[in-house]
Structure formats: C-alpha cells, structure tokens
Amino acid sequence: MSEKQLSGIKEIARIAGVSIGTVDRVLHNRGSVSPGALKKIQAAIAQINYQPNFIARSLVVNKMYRFAAIVPDADGDEYWEQILKGFTAALEDWNHFSITVDLYQFKLNSKTSFTRAASLALKSLPDGIVITPQFYQESIAFFDKCFKLGMPYVTFNTYMPEAKGLSFIGTDSHLSGMVAADLLYMGMAPNSKMIVLHFDEELQNSKHMLEKEDGFRAYFKKSPKNNQQIKTIVLNNPSHNYQKELKKLASSNEVDGLFVSTSKAYEIASLINTGKEKRIKIVGYDLLPKNIELMQRGAIDFLINQNPMQQARMSITALANYFILKKKVIPLQFFPIEIISRYNLSSYLNNDTHLLNEVIP
Amino acid sequence: MSEKQLSGIKEIARIAGVSIGTVDRVLHNRGSVSPGALKKIQAAIAQINYQPNFIARSLVVNKMYRFAAIVPDADGDEYWEQILKGFTAALEDWNHFSITVDLYQFKLNSKTSFTRAASLALKSLPDGIVITPQFYQESIAFFDKCFKLGMPYVTFNTYMPEAKGLSFIGTDSHLSGMVAADLLYMGMAPNSKMIVLHFDEELQNSKHMLEKEDGFRAYFKKSPKNNQQIKTIVLNNPSHNYQKELKKLASSNEVDGLFVSTSKAYEIASLINTGKEKRIKIVGYDLLPKNIELMQRGAIDFLINQNPMQQARMSITALANYFILKKKVIPLQFFPIEIISRYNLSSYLNNDTHLLNEVIP
DNA sequence: ATTAGATTTGTGTACGTACACACAAATTTA
DNA sequence: TAAATTTGTGTGTACGTACACAAATCTAAT
C-alpha cells in the first residue's frame, strides 16, 4: 500500500506548503493571504485541476433558506397543480437541507393580483424567488425592484429575455409552435384549414402563447407549399356558446387541424372528436390527466410535453444549487421539446429515469 | 433561537436513549444489540421517518471499485462510440470517488468473441459488471456464471427478461417499433408499401431488432385498416449490390416508407432521398452525427432516440449507487421513447437539462 | 530594542455517517 | 469463586469542506 492519497483542499495545501486554512481563504477570496502564498496556492489549484467536492460542502453549510414562489393560483387547473407538485418534489429532493418555499399566488387573469403577490413576496425578504412572469410590463417592474434589492430570482414557464435573473427554465415556445405545426401538417392535404386556438382572456400579456402562434405560422411561411388557411380563435369565457360553434365548425368542412396553444386541448377534444363527426387532428400541450385520457381514446393526436412539474422542481433546485452548493447555475435551460403520441405516451408516464436518479447533489 | 436541532442517526440515538454506535449497529444489522435497545431504536427510526443521508455516507466510504464493461468493439461505429462516451461521462460524474471501468470488448458478429470477453471480464474478478447481452444463449450462460460467483451485474441496451441482474437500462424495443410504425404510417395512403430494414448479419441473435419489427407489425395488426404490405429486408454485408437494389426500389413504386431497425438510417437515407427520385419516408434510430445531418437536410423523417450514451452512463451509475451509496437500484429502467423530428432536433442537441443537473449525489 | 498593532497563518470543531476499538456487564468455563 | 469468554454499549477518528479563533509573523513607532 502506498501513502494515503490526499485530495482536495488538503492536497492543495500540501503542494503549496501552506495550511488548509490559507487554501480556504484563497478559494473563497476572503483575503488575508500573502502574495507569495497566493501564487503558490493558485499554481497548486491549477496543477491538480481542483474541483470542489459539493458533497462535502453541502454537509457543512446548514443555514435555513427561505424561498418565495410567485405563481398563479391553481384553482383546479391541473397545469398549475403540477407546478405546485414540482415544489413539493423539490423539497423532498433537498430534504436533508433546511429550505422552505412560501407560495405567493395570484389570479391568472388579474394584473393587479400579480403585482400584489409579487410585492408581498418581496416584502417578506426571502433568500430567493422563483416566478412565472405572466404579465409583461408588471414583470419588468418586478425585476427592476429585485435588481435594486439585490434579490436573486429564477424565472420559469414563460420566457422573457428581459428577465436577467439567475436562470430561466422552461420551453422554447416559438420552436414548440413550429414542432406543433409540423406534427399537425404531417399527412394533410396542402390546402387544408387549420385553427390556432387560444384559451385566454388576456392574450396580449401571455407572451409565450403568442410566440407559439408565431412559431406555428412561421413553419408555414418557410414551407414552399404555404397555401394553408390559418385562422386564430381566442376563447375568452367558456360559455355554452362556443361549444355549439365548435361543433358546427367541426361538422362543417371548415377545419382539418387544430392547434391548442395551452394545456387545455382536452376541453376541445372532448367536444369534437367524439367519433361521429369528421375527425379533426389536434395538437396540444402537456400530459395532464384529461389530456392523457383523451389521447388514449384517440381524440388528441399529439401533445408537446412542457413538463410543468420539472420546471418548478428545477427552479427551486437552481436556487438551492446557488445558495447551498454554491454551484454555477445555467442561465438558460430550455427543455427538449418532447413529442408525445398515443404510442410513446405510456413510456413517459411514471417514468423519471430520464432524470438520471436523484436530482441533487 | 431554539435548541440545536439534531438530525439523522444522532436524533434517533437521542430519542431511543442510546448511543449512535448502537443505532449504527441496528441500521446495518451488525448484531450485538439487546432486544430492548433494538425495539426502542426501531421505534425512533419509524418516528422520525429516517432517511439516510447519502451525501454524508458517500464521504465516509472511500474504497476503490473496479467495474468491468462487456460491450462491442466500437470499431468506428458511432453508436458504440457513444456508449464508450457514456462510460467516460459516468467516470466524471463520480470523479470524487475511486472507480474504474475496464473494457472487455467483443466483435459484434462473433459469439465466441462475446463469450471470450465475458469470461475474461469475469476472471478479472471486478466488483461489478455492465454488459450488453447481444447473444441470447451465450448471455444466459454468462448470467449463470455470475449468479454462481455472486457477481453483481447490470444489463443495458438489449432487454432480456431472463437477465435477473441488478438492473436493466434501455429502451422498450417492442414499443419503440409501434411508435415507429405510427410515425411512418401517419399521413400515408392506407395501402402503402413499407419495408422493415435490418442491418445485421446475425439477426436471429439480436433480440431487440426482432422485437422492434414485432412492434412495428403489431401496430398494423391492431389497426382496422391493415392492408399494408410490409416487407422485411436484411442487409448482410454492405456491398455495392444493395445500393443499386435500393435505388431501384426507391425509383420504382415499390416503397413508400422505410423503417430502419438500427441506428444506421443514414446509410440508406444518403442513398435514396437525394432529391431527384420519389421521396421515401424514413424512420430510424438515434441521434448520431450522420443521422442528424441527414435529418437536417430532410432525408430522414423521424428518429427514435435510444440515448446510448445515457444508457451506458446510467449503467455505471447503477453500480456506483449500489456499491458506494448503497442505494436501492431500480431493476427496470425503460427510457421514455423520444420522438425526434427535424424541428425538435435542435432542442435535444447539447442539452442535458432533462437530466436535472448532476447525476450524482 | 521593545512593544503595540496589523497582517498572515495554523488549528480546532462541526456537518452526518461508518467503522474500529475500548471497555463494562453478563455469561460461561474451569 | 476466579478466570475466560461473549455480548452489549459508548467513544474516537475519519471523510472534505467551512469558518471561527488562536497563534505566529511582520511592520512601524517609540
């Protein structure tokens, strides 16, 4: 047996001929290090290509961290429920550390509610914030306040280039719109009729929905065979009127394909692809229970998985990495755009293996 | 500030009124614990729902582990190169631990070579083995030997229900064949002609290729409109003959769609979808550089991502979890079947975010 | 040359776990 | 009943890192 192999900070200390305390001061630039020692230590660090051991580090740092999450009121909406589940999952991931996530929820259709939640969150002075920036102007204002306070934040779900936070985590909406167009168009006649369907009362503020539509339309502009008729419909309040309208639309020859820009494809699919009328191809978003069921029944053709749960989970993880492990956080984390059909669906359900074992550290 | 909060093994000891040494003996059933103490400790463990801290554990145990990998000779084949890269990635993941992976490679078309590699690996008496069980009978024999030796092993890439190892990691081939069929058939005329194309000299032994074909055909059997003509072609040795044949096939009206059961779709796509002849739809496997390029040029329609690199990476991780962290290893880890088209392709390249940060603890 | 003050460096303890070892108590053997 | 053995229990050290504090060294003013 050879000498006991030192590693890490101790090995640096040995090579540089100083104590680990001095090495530690260099690694954390705490100062109080003589130029000579500094140089020797830096050389040693380079020499052994030192990589900090996050495992050991995490064992030491044991402060309490309080995070605030500014997200919509789920209010029965499964998409936002999944986001909440993501927070729970993250808390379990990090169960050996003391972190808490306080929810500051707002009404999806109310800017003032959003602003109120945001400022309440800020006022509580958490260590860090995760936020879905639903409203453009209001979010800008929020980021500004954070900047002034030096408050670290992570955005997710809705991408805003203006949000210069620690990280954004979510989908490339524009690209996902193109993918959707491709899936919808596939196998259709060149001059078929398509509808882009938005569920929203405040479309103007939901940037990512507009981006999805942009991507969708961009696909056909690029394509040489661009004689598709694309119509946009915005559903404001789900009254009984639109059901009739849609049914009529479906039975007439007015629609061949439907692109639903939100996770509510099931609302439409349950109305129109019931089997008697002409089959309309539908592409939507997200593996929500109702979407899954309708896809299994053949009423929805494709879903693009935005993975809301993982988005939320990773948002918290980003903060935790930043604070607890002091790891570098990737500033832009676009998820792969997962195409789900009736056939690969099952392989995505209850399957986190693509998340390689544990999330942390 | 309240009392310093104990946690883990210490807290158990406090509640049970014993020392941590005794708790430790219970947790690892090392014996030498009185019935009374045992009972109290078990109660305490249940009470606080103790979850071992793998982080702290990994810090302590610092043995050297030597793993053997029985995999094909890459020999320029990008698929197997990726597998090797996966091992490298795993070694980096676990760089704070002492693990090594010794390669025992065999020729893809030689059973004897496989058997030799396997027994060499076994003879080296590693701590654990990862293996792609390419040949059925020979693999069975190998598992048998492992069992007798008490040698832990992980299989990947090719699923064998008979392999009762620690874990299998890979794709559900049958299901992937169905997905492929669905993608290929989409938008095609009901009576279109399809070809299943295998690249293999020993098809009989490549179970997962047969399973892919089975899945592919099963898709059409289920479907009510099952008047497709499906032909199977096996390409043995890539001579110049088959190029001519395929070209002729392509320009004639004999083929509408092509399902390539291996990762070599590029070999065909580069021949037949060059732009002049009739366009043939192609579905293949894996994001290899050549496939990526041909997909970007529009010559390949869909790829199913089997993620060879992640398979290899997770195989090693499974062993490491088992030995180092003493975590439970999931015995069956089917990857989600990732559908890649020209449009979502970019979101899969250079993107490991779906692997949530780091692999390990 | 002495000493106060500032600067630099080293040491000790802790994090949660594993394991070797020491030692007391209980039990068996002579 | 003393000695030898077994059984049960607690203590100490280590893993790699962070940080508080003590110790050592250097600087400058007397």
Helix fraction of chain A? 40-55%
| CATH classification class of the largest domain in chain A | Alpha Beta
CATH architecture of the largest domain in chain A: 3-Layer(aba) Sandwich
How are the strands of the largest sheet of chain A arranged?
A: 2-1-3-4-5-11
Could you give the distance between the termini of chain A? 32 Å
What CATH calls the topology of the largest domain in chain A is Rossmann fold
- Strand portion of chain A, in percent? 15-25%
Number of strands of chain A: 12
The number of helical segments of chain A is 14
Number of domains as seen in the coordinates of chain A: 3
Oligomeric status: homodimer
What's the Cα radius of gyration of chain A?
A: 25 Å
Shape of chain A: elongated
Instruction: Output the CATH homologous superfamily of the largest domain in chain A.
Output: Response regulator
Q: Provide the structure class of chain A.
A: alpha/beta
Give, in order, the helices and strands of chain A: HHHHEHEHEHEEHEHEHEHEHEHEEH
Give the integer mean of the pLDDT values of chain A: 87
Instruction: Catalogue the unreliable spans of chain A.
Output: 353-361
Describe the main β-sheet of chain A briefly: 6 strands, parallel
Largest interface chains and counts = A-B, 52 and 54 residues
